[in-house]
Fold:
Amino acid sequence: MDKSRQTIVMFWITHIGLIFFLYPADIIDSLSVGHWCAVLLGFSIHIALVAVYTKGLSYCAPQNVIDLFQSVGRVFAFAMLLPLTLYLFLLMIITVRAYAEIVTVVFLGNTPLWTIMLLFLAVSAFICLLGIESLFRTGMLVMLLFFPFLILVVVLSFQNADWHYMLPLMDRDTATFAYVLRRPFLKSMFAFIGGFLFLGFIPSRISFQGRKIVLSSLGLIPFFLVSVYVPLLTFGENTASKFPFPYIAAVDTVDVSWLMFDRVTMFFMISMLCFVILFLSLAMWMALLLLKRGIPALNDPSASLLLIAIVYSVCLLVPNWSAVERLMWWNTFPRYYAAFVIPLVVYALGMRHRRKEPVRA
Amino acid sequence: MLLVVPNPNPGQTNVNIITQSGITINEILDKIDRNMEKKVDLLHLKVIIFERSVAEKGLSQSIESFMRARDISDKTFAAISDGPLEPLFDKLQSASESSGTETYDYFEKNAGWSPEVVQTRIWEVFRSMNSFTRDDVIPIVKPGLSTTIESAGSAVIRNGKMVGVIDSEESLLYNLFKGAGTQGKIEVMDHATVKIVADRLNRSSAMQKGRAIMKGKLRLKVTVLETVGSPTEAQIKSEIDEQLSAHFEAMLEAAQAKEADILGLGQYFRDKLSRDDLRQWRTKYYPFMKFEFKVHVIIQDEGLLKTNN
Structure:
């Protein structure tokens, strides 16, 4: 059965959950003029990778990434998937820790971090244990419930925009792509990469068309641009670079007298957190799949308990925000591995698979 | 520091005023918290009033701490008290009939705001502190004789420091520039009194021989409320033009002399100057900028009486 729609919704949720918090700060840090250029560059890399990945997957259709790698050889699969597992673990640790910190900074000032982190992990583990189908269905529900809020907040966030801050569009620094190797830009790629790997893991009974995924991801461009440009237009570059979460700060300035809540940010945060929890359970589901393949003795609940225990205890060991940032920087290398090597290898194996197929028939 | 705390009881509302002093705002809050039976939560803080002497010394540190604090909303209004704070707060306490929200109502658009009063929020001051091309004004208030609060113009803030004052008429022009709306403002002139019903401002900027030139055309729609003698329509129009242009030029000159770009005119030169030049906007270009201001008046109607043409 074609489940393209659900897959697209999941794809959107995982990305939107990542965009609005850390991404704008990274982009604003990496260059001072012409931010659209960096956003679009990152996005074109993203779209190219998604296209390669889905193409490769469609060549070896019923197999998922793990089966595909195992068909080459056990050692090969182990060597390929170990960095990916490491990446997923780091991703979960960073996401839980960073978003817990964001929640305390933005609205739960007096709640201890450990409770928020425990809540995140417990909810996402629960969703993930119910299986991938229910995860996807939850995604549909969350999208229906919270997407209208999100759109409302995105529209309202333009309230204080001063369009002159858009200018100048370009300068020498931007035009020569000098920013590409800067640390903040390299870090900013996390928003493009974390979200699409799951496409290779979902079982064949949830089938999707790669072309539709690629097309639908084009719809994410406005969100990437809005997340960077709303703070820039509201505060100007000099001020926007002073905020750790520029988009949240920009939404904080929105004053709507007819809304029942004084701060629109609450609306926004709560819908975002639902997206993030779904993203987390998806990452957890992928990690579980890898873990169970690696250690076949584990069953579902025990594997997930092990996983939560590891992630939670590492999260508790992270003392402060700068440690989170360091972790994010460390995760850059496994991230680029996951983003570039996995799709390209999948594509290569898919090509080989397709060439073999007619001979066998 | 003084805090006005509305204390709602069924039937009537009292206002408590808490006073405490200290070096930093957080230290004061901590002291208040220690001595109070309730917890101080500033989430619903609506207006912050600074004493003039404090504003003249510089607000940067306070504004930054407000922005950093997670419980103070960035949308809180900023205001400056012309004299010491105590008389103003005494007045607020003695005149507290509407549940202690006078200061907020005074600035709130749906309540008692009027176009001569500037609305400035904490985040706008913060933005101007870091901007090359934009300064801000903060409204000045003082205890009124018959009303609780009286407007005393606005303070010109440059890099977080109060450097000058503009009067109410000039504040109106500032609001006009900011697009805050001047509807309902009444202009009194020698031969007529008119009410502004709609306004629109077109601006264009150019650089000529290293000098910034700006053209502004203001279109006003007014309705006649009162005439003295029997002025013609053209006479009324030219009077409005003269009056507003004179005010505008006076304000701009005063602001230019202080190198404070309160109208954010540098914004219009962002694409015409390089980033390094923009850094020097306040000192190198702004004071020598030429502004051609034109007013175009449309008299929409003359009320229920005819005037002669």
